[in-house]
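FAQ: What does the model actually see?

It sees only this:
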Amino acid sequence: AVLSLLAEPAGQLGGELEWRDEGGQRHLRATFHGGARRVGLLGHADTVFPLGTAEFRPFRTADHLAYGPGVADMKGGLVLALVAIERLLALEGPRPTVELVVVGDEESRLVPPPFMDVLGQTDACLVLEAGGRDGHFVLGRKTGAWVRLVSQGRAAHSGTEPERGSSAILALCREVLRVAELDGTHPGLTVSAGKLQGGSMTNVVPERAEAALDIRSLEPAHLDEALQQAAAFDSHRGVRLSMEIDGRWPPMDPGPSSRALASTYEALARDAGVPTSAELRGGMSDGCWVAAAGVPTLDGLGPVGGFDHGPDEFIDLASFGDRAALLVGLLVAIEEHGIQSPGRNGDHA
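And it is asked to produce this:
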């Protein structure tokens, strides 16, 4: 439904639309032809919230802020992309070919996004996740993995003969607490237990249990070390434990071209009097995959916002004008000058 809402104005603006079905989801690409250089604008239409959340916590505005599930992550960025494209097309002068790619499954996918054949061939990729609460944009992101700890015990009647059983839940809980102690053992290393489930009935010693963990790190080597330590289980009577890696994603590791792109964006912001600077974030995005393919990538270029994935998620509506203008300026600068560090006065930006 979100993609359909985007497709209509994108088509009206002259975008050539392409739909793909992949991973049980639909994905949209809209091409706006321009000059020789191609720039990807990347976003996603899904949220982390279960179906129906918007019914009891609907979109609302108060003063200059907007609230609702997914406004920052990342419906606001999708709207800003369309605003920027509309402004870009209205300008006289050079502008790049823009590939707007909006996928339908970013929040749950652990493989490269659809349309990587397109994004991987662009001169730059600009991701429209929200800017931070302080207006910063993203130059780097952590690497990480989603893992499952699986505990297999032995069922028994919990009232008449509990001694015949081996609790999968108790063993798993002890292991989750052990793995959680890895949090902070290296700078930027985080461990979060996101889901725990197991057992069948209250009066049955649980035979099986699973836990889903999120482990992230600044350095791939530290992630590898943490995964090895997570799989080094203690001994539990009658319980067999294993670890499965559901998937991992690469870091968004800024190279010289991404840093030059960031310098251009910062020069634009200085000229416009808009406070912003580059930062590192722990959250993953599809920008990680594009950057890993060697494409200069910036993220967090959407509206100012924050508290993603929670009940207080918001965006600052007053930031739309400045952030859209900066995005347009960056697109024009890429077409006119390529990706290079600006002059001392930011003249080429």
